[in-house]
Amino acid sequence: MTANMQIKGNAATPALREKLRFLIKNESSYPISENLIERLIDMGTIICLHSGEPIVSAGDVAPDFYILTDGIMRCYHLEGDAETERTSYFALPGTVCISYHSYLRGEPSPNTYEACCPSSLLKVCKTDFSSLISLSPEFARWCLGNVQNQMYFFEMKSRVVQGSAKERYEAILKKRPEIIQKVPLRIIASYLGITPQYLSKLRRSIH
Question: Cα dihedral angle (5, 10, 12, 16), rounded to 10 degrees?
């Protein structure tokens, strides 16, 4: 993991705090009080990333909890000859990023979580995050709703991102145009499971 620029959460600008309140409130299917939202923000630090910079690298034990505030992140792993990248999913603002291998089991992460463009996240250390779950049933319900939403979107992805490479690209273009606008071509290709050269041909045929 690289050394990222960190800003204490309680030093965040009023505009950033307001954005975090909105994102946290809307990331779960269960409600959360303003008091708990403020408590969560105050526990954290703001991590600022350059494009291509990871918060977690494969092989790291990194159990902390993150909420993306700006930018786009991706989760990817290496397969085959350990040189082929496969992007599993993209994260947009509001998305929780966490290595469950590290958080639940203390094991190295099998995946890398990387910024696709300049991005920022709220980072909360595992000890603080876990203590809040233990002390607040309301926060525990919020976490449950968050996981349920993630499971829903993984199922939705399997329904939406299917068919030919052209159809899958068009689905992203229609439903998540910001990914097409901000994410490098090679990363989109690794998500679709095609080469960047083939993706370039698809883009020319569509546009």
Answer: 120
Q: What would the pLDDT profile of 132-157 be if each residue is shown by its tens digit? A: 999 999 999 999 999 998 888 877 76
CB 114 within 8 A of CB 53: yes
Q: For residue 69, report the phi and psi dihedrals to the nearest 5 degrees.
A: -100, -35
With tokens 């505009």, the residue in question is: 15
DSSP at 192: H
Chain length of the chain: 207
pLDDT (tens digit, 9 = 90+) per residue, 54-80?
A: 999 999 999 999 999 999 999 999 987
pTM: 0.88
Domains and CATH numbers, the chain: 5-160 (2.60.120.10)
State how far the alpha carbon of 54 is from the alpha carbons of 47, 74, 82, 169, in Å.
11, 9, 18, 25
How far apart, in Å, do the first and last CA atoms of the chain sit? 38
Query: Is 48 within 8 Å of 7 (Cβ atoms)?
Result: yes
User: Cα(79)–Cα(84) distance, rounded to whole angstroms?
Assistant: 6
Own/partner long-range contacts of 184-188 (Cβ < 8 Å, ≥24 apart): 184/51, 184/116, 187/74, 187/76, 187/85, 187/87, 187/116
Rounded to the nearest angstrom, the gap between the alpha carbon of residue 60 and the centroid of all alpha carbons in its chain is 17
User: Angle at CA 59, nearest 5°, toward 116 and 107?
Assistant: 115
